[in-house]
Amino acid sequence: MEIAVLDKPAGILCRHNTGTACGIYPERPEACARWHCLWRKIGALPDELRPDRSGVMFSLETRSPTAEAPDEACIVGRAVEGAQAFDSWEVEEAFAMFAREGSLPVWKVSGRDVILVSRGGGNPAR
């Protein structure tokens, strides 16, 4: 993801990544401190959904991934290396699980393509 304060563009590994951790973790910027990888936070997500294995990063975000939608807490699944990552049954089931849970909007993002999967509040996207 893009992190402006670090001059880190989207799709590029952060220069502070040590290979096993964040090299500036105690001093990391607020954007990093607020970001939550859901694979690490939700025990129900299997190893196959680890971002480096599935090609999708699921995160809890405080802003919608598109300017056309209101800023609100949401779940975003971002394809790391292309939309084909959305085709695996594990990834499809993860999106379905987040949509069934229903409390937050769920988005699919691949590059500049943004798709609303579920509006949250129990309302599927149409």
Task: Explain what this protein looks like in three dimensions.
This protein has 126 residues and is an alpha+beta fold. It folds into two domains: 1-33, no CATH class; 35-124, no CATH class. It has helices at 30-34, 38-41, 51-54, 89-101; strands at residues 36-37, 56-61, 74-79, 106-110, 113-120, 123-124. The protein has a six-stranded mixed sheet with strand order 1-2-3-4-5-6.
Distance between the termini: 27 Å
CA gyration radius, whole angstroms: 14 Å
Tell me the major beta sheet.
6 strands, mixed
Mean pLDDT: 87
Structural class: alpha+beta
Low-confidence stretches: none
The 3D shape can be described as globular
Helical segment count: 4
Integer count of domains: 2
Strand content bin: 15-25%
Helix content: 10-25%
User: How many runs of DSSP E, i.e. beta strands?
Assistant: 6
The strand line-up of the biggest sheet is 1-2-3-4-5-6
Q: Please trace the helix and strand order, writing H or E for each element.
A: HEHHEEHEEE
Write the layout of secondary structure elements.
Layout: H1 30-34, E1 36-37, H2 38-41, H3 51-54, E2 56-61, E3 74-79, H4 89-101, E4 106-110, E5 113-120, E6 123-124
Parallel strand pairs: 3-4
Antiparallel strand pairs: 1-2, 2-3, 4-5, 5-6
Offer a few descriptive terms.
six-stranded mixed beta sheet; alpha+beta; 2 domains; YkgJ family cysteine cluster protein; 126 residues; globular
In short:
The protein is an alpha+beta fold.
